[in-house]
Structure formats: C-alpha cells, structure tokens
Write a sequence for this structure.
C-alpha cells in the first residue's frame, strides 16, 4: 500500500518541487543567506543548502560544511515558517476622509498558495498551535487565514539535532506526526541519496503520482526509523516537564527571576524567533493632511513596554516581570489557555538570544532550588 | 478651514543633518507646506514670521551660556516643542567633552583661547526646558519626522516605538550578526527608528538612536567582553553620538581607566 512508503530519488524530489511550482505554489524552504540557513522563497532543489549544516549553542550559530551532499543536513534555521502565515506587518484597512466621515477602501486579499518545503516536526506543532489561536479560536485573523488556506506541507523528519533542540522533551519530534501532506526522510546509502516519503493526504498522493518514484523496501523503512532514532538520541538540550505548570505557578517569587532579569536585555529576540509566539499590535497612521488613514498590524512582544501598557503606564515595568510573563506563559498558562504547552522545543530562543539565556536552564534552576 | 499651524525650526549646537532630513522629504514637502505655515526655518528660508509658534522643532544641544538662555526663549514662544536628533536629545557627539577637561582642550586647540566662550558640557534640550516629544537618531529618520509632524497636526500620538533595534531587525527577517557572525551589535540596547539599517548590511549597530526604553547595558557589555571586545573598545562603542545618554554613559564609565 502506498501509505506504507514511496521512495524518491534526488531527481524525483527535484521533479516534485517543479510539480508544486507548476500548480502555482510559492515554495518556501531552506536556503543559505548571510551566514545562516534561512527559510525563504526558493526556486527548486538548487537553492537548498546542499552540504551545509550548522552548529548551535546558546547565543551562538555558525554554518559548517558537511562531508556529504545532504539537502536537509541541518536542524532549524533562525526563523520558523511563522512569517509565511503570520506576517510581520499587515495592512488591515485603509480609509479616505469623505464628507465629515470616512470610507474604507478595498484591500487586496488574494495570496499565492504556499508550499512549505522541509518543515520539521517542531515547526508543524507550532503551526498547529498558531492555527488554534489565529484560525480556530473565537477571533479568526483574516490575514493569517488567507495565507494559511490551501498551503501544502512537505515535512522532513530530522536527520540531525541542533545543539539547542529539545523536541523529545516536549513530545513534538523529531518525527513529524501530523500536519503535512508528504513527510520525507533523507537517506544515504553510500553515494545513493534518496528520500523515503510518507503520504498523508489525497493532495500529497496526487502530486506524488505525477513524479517518478519507486516503492519503498523494508530496508528503507528500517533505515528511516534509524535516522529519527539517532536524531532523538542527539538532543542538545532537555527539559523536565513533570508538573511544570504547578512548578512555575508555585515559584512566581523565586529569586531566579531576579537573576535572569540581570542578564535579560528585554530585546524581544526570543519571542520574535519563537514559532508559537503570536502577539501583535496595531498602529493607526495618517498622512500629513489627515485625508488618508491606515491601520497596520505588526509583530509585538511581551518584552516591549508598550505591550502591557494600559491607561497610566505599563503593568510590567520591570524586565523581571516581563521575562517571567514570557516563560510562564510558554510553559504554564498556555496549557490552561490552549490545552498544550506553548513551547515545541525548537531551541531558537536559546540560540538567538544575544546573551544566551536558555529557557531549559532557567526552568532547571528553579526546579533544583525550589524551597520547601 | 482650520487655521494653518505655525511651524518653527531652531538650531543649537549641531551639524544641521537632522534639519536637512526635513528638506530631504522631497515627496512630502509640498504636502507639508500645505499643512503648516513655515514661520521660522533659517536653513530653508530667511523669511521669518513672528511667534508664538504652534510647533517648534529643535535641533542641537546646549553648549554655551547664551544658548542656555536662548532655548528658554524658544520654549516661551512655542506651544509644542519637539527635539530632534542625538544632539538635542542626548548632547550629541560634542558631549564627549563631558568626559574631559574643556579648559585644557581650549588651551591646546585654539590659537586664541580667550575668544572661545563655551560651557564645560554639552547637554540635551530636555535638561534645560520641558519638551513634549524627543525624536532620536543621528541623524533622525525622515519617515519618523513626518510621522511626528503628522501626529501633531492630526492630534494623535506618534507611532514611534521605543523598543530595541532587534525588533525592527527581526521584522525585516535579518540574520542576527551578533549570534551568527560574532559581530558585537548595540541593537539590543538601542532605541528603534532606523529600521535596523546597519544589521541589514551585516554590520553591528552603532547606537545612533540612543538607549531603548529599558536598556540593560551592563549585560550586553558583559557579552561583548566575553566575545573579546576590550574594555577600551567597549567604552569607544558606547561613546559616540549618544555618549551622554544616561545608560550609555554609566556603562562606559564602569569600564574606563
Ligand atoms: S520557547 Fe523557545 S524552544 Fe520553545 S518553541 Fe519558542 S523558541 Fe522554540
Ligand atoms: S531572553 Fe534573551 S532574547 Fe529574550 S528578551 Fe531576554 S535577552 Fe532578549
Ligand atoms: S543583529 Fe543586532 S539588532 Fe539585529 S537582532 Fe541581532 S543584536 Fe539585535
Ligand atoms: S548604527 Fe544602529 S541606530 Fe544607527 S543606523 Fe545603524 S542600526 Fe540604526
């Protein structure tokens, strides 16, 4: 049965990307830019980071060469696919003054459909979390919905864990479980480079039928299983989640919050790279004569003073209160609010914090020094 | 039709770069001229209208006793006073004198030191008179200047974020130069406004917009030292256009000598 597995050669995979483009998808996948493997619009297989990997540590990221020709031989890039659906800035509406009132002008809505290439298990969990908040909640974000609708997802089961990954602790990876049309595992057998493909949707089956592929052998399935097992054993970080919600709620006055506030820059990088963070703000702008106005939505962060500004001032004036808000929301109150953790263990907040603050280390410090 | 507000532009110790940003607003200049009466703007026209002025835009810092007096007069004739640029909001590059002995400079640099009449310090306008709004940058960003004027004309709050440059950097999708290249970057403690110009060209931020809303300069300073920036190098990074801004000054003083 086809669901059990199909094998794509390198050429077959290239043909798959071509077929997606023929169908009008904009491909968003990994590519090397400015010293990192970022997710951006790609044309095809030639844009993928062939033979590249990265070394990630807290506050540090470096590209490195691999000895093979792997196309996905790295862990996760600086940003997730968040930008593709939850855009950094969105014009909500524009208006023109008319007869003492105003008229709202039409806004362009149609978005080209996106195909995500090589989305990791953690990122797919993050997309599911953002869907819950921005698509399936009581208030649908129309811009998110327009971009998210009709997206095609080619997942990739991780063959390498990054130095700051901890998806195993969060139960989100390294094998993609849902949220995709096709899931690939990159396999090497000497010079033979191919992909085991798991088909999860009729759309996935239909597109696969149009490109040359073979049937998976038992040995392919076993090899793919070994790839994810090996990745799972290489996690750069771990986070003990036992009773984590209660642990954090019990420790809102722990001295560790002062300690981390001494290091934290409140720069907001952690929230902006986090694939689940969904906060935004709106700004109203006018032109000089006040004839035209526009309302713009843009990413915001709980680390900015404005984010918690209510009449009279910010309710979280200290960095301590803002860091605590961030961490306890991710790992505790998110569970009450949405039924899952707000952290998928991608490690980005750890790598991309300019001063290397590590969420797993902060929780471990609180856990190990909890009083009575 | 509403009466057109009178706009005045004033210069103190500065390079004129920020005022020029206003003249540089080519596309919007006509709209601006339509929306306000430019009553006093020496850089643009020698014609002057008498005060009081609805909006005064002030560039430059206070470096002489005469200017300390003049800014009081400007305040007296201005309904709303907005300061623009690193000089007016933090003392500017000329505030480097605040860390040294000005009398000594005077005797070494000038052939006739007795002609030089100056204060020992260069200070921000807000240290002398109350100010309604401070627009940062060296130079200011012209889009932000138009935003502030537009907000004033339409009676609304200017959309000028005071968070870090990092937020703008991430909105743009830049790869962080500090994390990925090991380039020291002042972005995390610097006030947004430039659109993360330097990191967009793979350079670290130099801090033109001064300290952000809640700067933790001590922590970033530790990170720079750990990345092999020398204490002297750190002092130099903090002492540029916003050397006298409190957060930058305090951190540079900690590493001096
Ligand atoms: S909190 Fe950190 S590790 Fe968790 S999902 Fe967000 S960026 Fe990834
Ligand atoms: S934890 Fe790190 S990335 Fe997040 S706000 Fe603090 S310093 Fe910035
Ligand atoms: S490059 Fe500089 S401004 Fe940009 S995110 Fe990194 S530290 Fe912040
Ligand atoms: S030095 Fe910093 S504040 Fe100045 S233009 Fe560059 S990034 Fe912007």
């Amino acid at each position: 049965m086809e669901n059990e597995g199909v094998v794509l050669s390198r050429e077959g995979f290239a043909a798959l990307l071509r077929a997606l483009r023929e169908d009008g998808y904009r491909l968003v996948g990994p590519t090397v830019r400015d010293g990192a493997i970022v997710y951006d619009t790609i044309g095809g297989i030639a844009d993928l980071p062939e033979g590249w990997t990265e070394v990630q540590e807290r506050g540090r990221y470096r590209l490195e060469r691999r000895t093979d020709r792997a196309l996905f031989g790295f862990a996760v890039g600086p940003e997730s696919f968040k930008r593709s659906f939850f855009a950094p800035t969105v014009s909500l509406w524009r208006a023109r003054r008319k007869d003492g009132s105003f008229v709202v002008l039409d806004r362009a809505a149609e978005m080209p459909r996106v195909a995500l290439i090589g989305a990791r298990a953690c990122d797919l969990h993050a997309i599911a979390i953002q869907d819950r908040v921005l698509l399936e909640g009581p208030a649908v974000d129309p811009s998110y919905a327009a971009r998210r609708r009709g997206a095609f997802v080619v997942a990739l089961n991780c063959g390498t864990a990054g130095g700051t990954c901890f998806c195993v602790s969060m139960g989100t990876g390294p094998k993609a479980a849902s949220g995709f049309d096709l899931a690939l595992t990159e396999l090497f057998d000497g010079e033979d480079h191919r992909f085991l493909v798991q088909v999860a949707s009729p759309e996935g089956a239909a597109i696969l039928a149009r490109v040359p592929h073979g049937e998976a052998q038992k040995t392919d399935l076993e090899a793919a299983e070994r790839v994810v097992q090996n990745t799972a054993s290489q996690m750069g970080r771990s986070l003990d989640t036992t009773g984590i919600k209660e642990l954090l709620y019990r420790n809102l006055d722990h001295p560790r919050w002062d300690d981390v506030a001494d290091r934290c820059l409140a720069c907001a990088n952690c929230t902006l790279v986090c694939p689940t963070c969904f906060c935004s703000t709106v700004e109203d702008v006018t032109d000089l004569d006040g004839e035209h106005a526009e309302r713009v939505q843009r990413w915001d962060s709980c680390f900015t003073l404005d984010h918690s500004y209510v009449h009279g001032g910010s309710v979280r004036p200290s960095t301590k209160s803002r860091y605590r808000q961030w961490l306890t929301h991710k790992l505790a109150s998110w569970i009450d609010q949405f039924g899952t953790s707000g952290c998928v263990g991608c490690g980005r907040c750890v790598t991309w914090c300019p001063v290397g603050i590590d969420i797993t280390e902060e929780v471990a410090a609180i856990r190990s020094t909890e009083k009575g | 039709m509403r009466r057109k507000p009178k706009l005045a532009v004033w210069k103190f110790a500065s390079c004129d770069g920020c005022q020029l940003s206003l003249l540089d607003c080519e596309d919007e200049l006509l709209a601006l001229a339509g929306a306000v009466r430019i009553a006093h703007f020496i850089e643009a026209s020698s014609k002057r209208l008498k005060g009081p002025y609805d909006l005064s835009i002030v560039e430059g810092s206070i470096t002489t006793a005469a200017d300390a007096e003049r800014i009081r007069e400007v305040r007296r004739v201005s309904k709303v006073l907005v300061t623009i640029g690193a000089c007016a909001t933090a003392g500017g590059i000329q505030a480097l004198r605040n860390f040294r002995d000005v009398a000594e400079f005077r005797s070494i640099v000038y052939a006739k030191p007795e002609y030089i009449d100056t204060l020992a310090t260069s200070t921000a306008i807000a240290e002398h008179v109350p100010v309604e709004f401070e627009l940062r940058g060296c130079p200011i960003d012209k889009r932000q200047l138009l935003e502030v004027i537009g907000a004033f004309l339409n009676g609304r709050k200017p959309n000028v974020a005071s968070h870090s440059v990092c937020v703008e950097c991430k909105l743009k999708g830049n790869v962080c130069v500090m994390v990925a290249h090991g380039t020291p970057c002042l972005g995390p403690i610097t006030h947004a406004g430039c659109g993360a110009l330097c990191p967009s060209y793979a350079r670290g931020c130099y801090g033109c917009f001064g300290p952000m809303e809640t700067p933790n300069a001590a922590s970033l300073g530790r990170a720079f030292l750990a990345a092999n920036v020398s204490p002297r190098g750190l002092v130099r990074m903090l002492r540029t256009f916003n050397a006298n801004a409190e957060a930058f000054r305090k951190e540079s003083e900690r590493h001096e000598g």
